[in-house]
């Protein structure tokens, strides 16, 4: 590909230094979108004369950036999405008079997401510069382009500054957490690695819209020895073991399909919603922004609840819990879950708080159903599933964590409820993000 040429010198505008650098950078770079196999098919690149959807273009660039060089902590990556797309949504809320609206909005979106991502994932600056150049080469030089980029950059700097020191960096998220003294029901490190607890620092992070981390903290998990507790353990014991004879092949596939990062698994469904939306550009950017704002706050609320109750994982309970003489809760020291248990408490399930919040945002902003879409999973190669609504994804997540042997059903269902509550709060107070 030959180097891209500027048709006219770029005028001096606030924050345009990087724009000038980008326009002079050689363009022989692979598209960042090819660096990540998204959960749904990515639209092919436009040919000459075809219209390009800037929102999808920068959605794919964001996904590829995080996949290639993102943080090791999911909440940090959700923060990157939230900051980048909140800046874009703010920039798109109004276009100045006297300029081409579409050109201005494409430039503003690109300027906002590019500036945010370069600041948050600097290792990808070269690829991000190339992506910005590709967008700007489609836009005629002039006030719409220049003002759009400048406004997007300004919005990005404002959002970045507002989130500085929010405690969502990897070191803060995974701040050391002392292992509690052993006791019935109390979380302990789990086999096979017996690693110390992670993600405890999320509960001390600054939310986007929650007033405090415990704002929607649910009531405690089922009491040890209660009927609900025994039923939970009996189900996991029967269906969640590595050698279960009760679990069907389809249930095993479900557990494996939803095993990976929720952020990765929901990148595809959110892209489907964005691609099929015919709303104005600002509303489409707001969809992505609010989705991830809600998910950051949900992850903060999840860690608050987990570390408030410190409920042990099923593997610990099943191996050691002879609580009341009931055969369903007598110890089974050799019991092993289908999948390795993550290093944090059981209650609630983080996968399911994520699912509940994601479902609530998508349902509220694009409706509960959509035309069929196919979804794949990096943890289940070769498996493709088709969906027509968002709730089925949540229902499968609830079952999956039980069939993986790593959560009780109570932890899953309470998690869904918590995620939905946080998401509803996000939607009710979204106007605070745009003041």
TrEMBL record:
**Stored SUPFAM superfamilies:** Acid phosphatase/Vanadium-dependent haloperoxidase
Gene3D superfamilies, per the entry: 1.10.606.20
Bias (Pro residues) occurs at 177-194
Classification via InterPro entries? PAP2/HPO_sf, V-haloperoxidase
Positions of region (Disordered):
162-198
**PANTHER family for this protein:** PEROXIDASE-RELATED (PTHR34599), PHOSPHATIDIC ACID PHOSPHATASE TYPE 2_HALOPEROXIDASE DOMAIN-CONTAINING PROTEIN (PTHR34599:SF1)
Protein name stated in the entry: PAP2 superfamily protein
Which species is this UniProt entry from? Thermomonospora echinospora
């Amino acid at each position: 590909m030959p180097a891209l040429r500027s048709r006219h010198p770029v005028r001096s505008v606030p924050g345009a230094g990087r724009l000038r650098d980008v326009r002079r950078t050689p363009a022989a770079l692979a598209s960042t979108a090819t660096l990540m196999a998204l959960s749904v098919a990515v639209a092919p690149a436009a040919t000459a004369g075809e219209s390009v959807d800037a929102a999808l273009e920068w959605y794919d660039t964001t996904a590829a950036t995080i996949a290639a060089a993102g943080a090791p902590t999911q909440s940090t990556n959700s923060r990157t999405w939230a900051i980048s797309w909140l800046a874009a949504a703010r920039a798109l809320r109004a276009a100045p008079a006297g300029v081409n609206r579409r050109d201005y909005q494409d430039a503003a979106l690109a300027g906002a997401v590019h500036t945010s991502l370069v600041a948050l994932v600097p290792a990808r600056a070269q690829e991000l510069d190339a992506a910005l150049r590709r967008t700007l080469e489609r836009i005629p030089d002039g006030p719409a382009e220049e003002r759009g980029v400048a406004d997007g950059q300004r919005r990005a700097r404002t959002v970045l500054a507002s989130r500085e020191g929010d405690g969502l960096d990897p070191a803060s998220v995974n701040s050391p957490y002392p292992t509690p003294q052993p006791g019935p029901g109390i979380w302990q490190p789990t086999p096979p690695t017996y690693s110390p607890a992670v993600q405890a620092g999320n509960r001390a992070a600054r939310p986007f819209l929650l007033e405090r981390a415990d704002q929607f903290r649910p009531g405690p998990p089922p009491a040890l020895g209660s009927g609900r507790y025994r039923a939970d353990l009996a189900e996991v014991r029967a269906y969640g073991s590595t050698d279960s004879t009760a679990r069907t092949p389809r249930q095993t596939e479900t557990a494996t399909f939803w095993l990976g990062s929720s952020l990765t698994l929901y990148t595809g469904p959110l892209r489907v919603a964005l691609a099929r939306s015919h709303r104005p550009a600002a509303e489409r950017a707001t969809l992505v922004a609010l989705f991830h704002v809600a998910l950051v706050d949900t992850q903060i609320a999840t860690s608050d609840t987990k570390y408030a109750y410190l409920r042990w994982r099923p593997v610990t309970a099943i191996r050691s819990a002879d609580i009341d003489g009931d055969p369903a809760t007598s110890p089974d020291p050799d019991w092993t879950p289908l999948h390795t248990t993550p290093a944090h408490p059981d209650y609630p399930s983080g996968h399911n708080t994520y699912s509940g919040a994601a479902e609530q945002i998508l349902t509220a902003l694009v409706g509960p159903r959509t035309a069929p879409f196919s979804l794949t999973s990096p943890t289940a190669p070769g498996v493709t599933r088709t969906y027509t609504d968002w709730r089925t994804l949540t229902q499968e997540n609830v079952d999956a964590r039980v069939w993986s042997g790593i959560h009780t059903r109570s932890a899953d269902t309470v998690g869904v409820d918590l995620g939905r509550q946080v998401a509803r709060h996000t939607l009710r107070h979204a106007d605070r993000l745009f003041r």
